[in-house]
């Protein structure tokens, strides 16, 4: 059985710069010639207003994660005023999670309420976190959620609490944590 994952979590509140920090860390990992896979989520805006969120793979594939609820959203699950497009999310996220060979670092921005509407995603994330040698950087919300709470309690998990006050200083600390296990392989 493989050794447990080395897991780093950003614990965050909304609007503190989690995706910006995640992208900076991805760039530094690439500069260090570390192979990374994963995705991030970002706001989708139209005419200056947020209309939803996209999921973007680190190799550039993009799809809708959620949009402001409309009649076209049918039976999509809702988070606030947003309808979550599980099928579109899974079309980007699941191929990444199902093909981790040769990738020492997995980036998951984020494991939140919208993403966890996908049972396939939830199952695969739990499997990877418990049975993989992959180094993982994931962003998780500060509010309690059963799946996230169970991941947070894993013995190999390290929590970095991201705030407006520390977001500029946290990059080096997280990089040191991520690079340590990679130096021994």
UniProtKB/TrEMBL annotation:
Gene3D superfamilies linked to this entry: P-loop containing nucleotide triphosphate hydrolases (3.40.50.300)
Cleaved signal peptide residues: 1-19
Coiled-coil residue spans: none
GO molecular function, one term: ATP binding
The entry's keywords: ATP-binding, Hydrolase, Nucleotide-binding, Signal
Keyword Hydrolase: yes
InterPro entries in the record: Nuc-triphosphatase_THEP1, P-loop_NTPase
Protein name: Nucleoside-triphosphatase THEP1
Organism: Bemisia tabaci (Sweetpotato whitefly)
């Amino acid at each position: 059985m493989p050794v447990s994952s080395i897991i780093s979590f950003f614990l965050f509140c909304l609007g503190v710069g989690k995706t910006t920090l995640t992208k900076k860390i991805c760039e530094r990992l690439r500069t260090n010639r570390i192979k990374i896979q994963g995705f991030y989520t970002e706001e989708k805006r139209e005419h200056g207003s947020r209309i939803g969120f996209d999921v973007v793979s680190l190799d550039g594939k993009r799809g809708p994660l959620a949009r402001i609820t409309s009649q076209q959203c049918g039976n999509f699950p809702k988070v606030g005023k947003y309808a979550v497009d599980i099928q579109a999310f899974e079309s980007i996220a699941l191929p990444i999670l199902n093909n981790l060979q040769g990738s020492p670092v997995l980036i998951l921005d984020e494991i939140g309420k919208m993403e966890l509407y996908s049972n396939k995603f939830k199952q695969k994330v739990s499997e990877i976190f418990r049975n993989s040698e992959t180094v993982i950087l994931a962003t998780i919300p500060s509010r309690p959620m059963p799946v996230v709470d169970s991941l947070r309690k894993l013995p190999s998990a390290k929590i970095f609490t991201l705030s407006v006050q520390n977001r500029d200083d946290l990059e080096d600390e997280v990089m040191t944590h991520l690079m340590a296990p990679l130096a021994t392989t």
